[in-house]
């Protein structure tokens, strides 16, 4: 599964686009953040991405867990958000719509 | 459905206990936060609460949405986290365990 690393400077709209793309390709995506500012951008992105994928029949949910990671030799506690369809569905391609076109939007 | 208002000063462990209690009583709970610090405490609380309710057969997920709210006459954008069981299950009381006891833990 793809892991998106989101920071305080990440644009929620761009991250939302990446989430939607990963959901269509792999059915799930993981977001890793360190710190409140980064988490804020990530959660906003999930809220936006819910709208992006709803038309494909997906009901995005997120599952937060703690993760111990090492950054520059220092131990930090990260938060991982597993972003999945509620019932593990894969996106249904819309009739008469090219997948490539969907990915651009 | 109960709405928990979480702030920067909220203890994630206490909020996790409140989430677990609400999940057992109502099957779902909503958390409302304004700002990155408050969201951070709320998401940590959900991560902790997942462990609390797993023994009852619940798979906690959270669904973030935006909400326009008014605080002291000013418009703010809040984030609402709908905390639910993935498949809308209700907690199964453990055999030989009194519900009142469960609620205290």
Walk me through what this model shows:
The structure is a homodimer of 105-residue chains. The mean pLDDT of chain A is 89. In chain A, strands 1-2-4-3 form a four-stranded mixed β-sheet. The radius of gyration of chain A is 14 Å and the shape is globular. The first copy, chain A, is 38% helix and 31% strand. Chain A is built from three helices and four strands. In chain A, helix 1 (12-26) crosses helix 2. Chain A starts with a strand and ends with a helix. Chain A is of the alpha+beta class. Chains A and B meet through helix 2 and strand 3 of A and helix 2 and strand 3 of B.
Write the SSE topology:
2 copies of one chain form a homodimer.
Chain A: E1 3-5, H1 12-26, E2 28-33, H2 36-54, E3 60-71, E4 74-85, H3 99-104
Parallel strand pairs in A: 1-2
Antiparallel strand pairs in A: 2-4, 3-4
Helix pairs in contact in A: 1-2
């Amino acid at each position: 599964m793809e892991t998106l690393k989101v920071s305080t400077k990440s644009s929620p709209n761009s991250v939302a686009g990446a989430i939607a793309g990963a959901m269509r390709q792999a059915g799930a995506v993981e977001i890793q953040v360190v710190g409140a500012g980064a988490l804020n951008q990530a959660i906003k992105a999930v809220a936006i991405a819910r709208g992006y994928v709803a038309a494909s029949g997906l009901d995005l949910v997120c599952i937060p867990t703690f993760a111990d990671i090492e950054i520059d030799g220092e131990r930090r506690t990260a938060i991982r958000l597993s972003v999945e369809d509620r019932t593990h569905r894969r996106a249904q391609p819309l009739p008469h719509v090219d997948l490539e076109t969907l990915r651009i939007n």
